[in-house]
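Hi support team,

I'm filing this because I wasn't sure whether my run with pyridoxal-5'-phosphate finished correctly. The job status page said complete, but I'd like someone to confirm that the output block is well-formed before I use it downstream. Pasting the exact inputs I used:
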Amino acid sequence: MTFRQARYDEPLVWELSPPSEGAPGPSVPGLPEKLRRKKALRWPELSELEVVRHYTRLSQMNFGIDTSAYPLGSCTMKYNPKVSEAVARRRTAAELHPEQPVETVQGALEILWRLETALGKITGFPEVSLQPAAGAHGEFAALLMVRAYFRDRGELGRRTEVLLPDTAHGTNPASAAMAGFTTREIPSKDGCVDLEALRAAVSDRTAAFMLTNPNTAGLFESQIVEIAETVHGAGGLLYYDGANLNAILGVTNPGRMGFDVAHLNLHKTFATPHGGGGPGAGVLGAGELLAPYLPVPRVVKKGRRFALDYDRPKSIGKIKSGYGNFGLDLRAYVFLLSHGEEGLRAVSRRSVLNANYLGQRLGRHLPRPFRPLVKHEFLLSGAPLKARGVRTLDLAKRLLDEGYHAPTVYFPALVEEALMIEFPETESRRELDGFADAFERAVTDTPENLHAAPRNLSVGRVDEVRAARDLHLSWKDLRERPPKP
Ligand SMILES: *Cc1c(COP(=O)(O)O)cnc(C)c1O
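And here is everything the job wrote out:
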């Protein structure tokens, strides 16, 4: 089946329409004269079919999880079950107002309370807040809690440093800096934290160590107990970046590993939609030391009623309007209910199996740094391609022509020409094999073809320098200053 290919300069609905005289807008009885429209309103004069085709074509220019697999390591793009969408779009959920009196939203509060309780079990923490709107927001809020904790202990002037491994997600050092800390990088050894380097770096200046486990090389930090002892021994706190918890769900948790606070992304781990900077949910779990500092309000249960509690004197305060992103919380809650405890463990087993199966297959074509047994994602190095004048970027673009979204590339920085691949548990063995075959075609293609990719998409290879310097921020820009060929 072939479609008429949509292009970036697809005409707008207005331009498809013949010039029209316009028509008066709807007349509103009693509208004062000065508020009435002076010029007739111009409607595009197109048939329903023309409009439907126009928007359907535009939608085909998009890449989404409902069209093809999205092997984006560290960003866990999994299928969003339609049952969650159906529940979240019901009027009783979608039309709630965040300022409604609590007596009128008892059902919603109960869902939030139950979700917090379930996430407490999953993270191993006594208290959970659903407020942060994204992973990075959760990190920032948690670091404000760390600040407040040391202020209360009279140690804030001294504990100014946040330590991070060189595999840390970019948001970690950014959040630490935003919260007023200086950052210090701890090197890795064979893909995991170099314990000796960490021991040498901790001091009475250490406020916290931020760690992702399994880390961004897909490896479980096997010395996690020693890491926790080292940081706590120096009086610092341990922060767990649980954006992607899918490898350890129901198997272990940050509380058990000795962490003091964690964020987890409902929009990666629990199949709620994300991407394009859309709304997220970077919920926070905290152990006993930091729980009093969690943002307000907290959802509390009093007898059979639910309420919002603002009376938490040590709290860092409110960090978001309303309570959180309720629609995402609800989708995650449906995901948890539909899986159950055993189902969540199956999610972990399946995502780890997928990563190891695909890692084995792709490892025939490119080297895999570090040890081969991974958790939910794995790394490849495209360095050997350089001998043929090909880079990881070319390979990623070539995969687009095979109908797949590109994997994460050039992260983490400690692997030369890195590709970071994750096929979550929602992808079948057929999909994994299909991707492995496509990868083989791509990696063995000629340098000319690799450099020219993508050829089959509505937008070709973007000139990144010009894209940054010569911005076209609206369709009008594009019309008035068409990009030079
Ligand atoms: C995605 C991610 C984050 C940031 O989450 P956002 O919701 O994008 O702000 C932080 N850490 C890790 C490891 C991630 O994968």
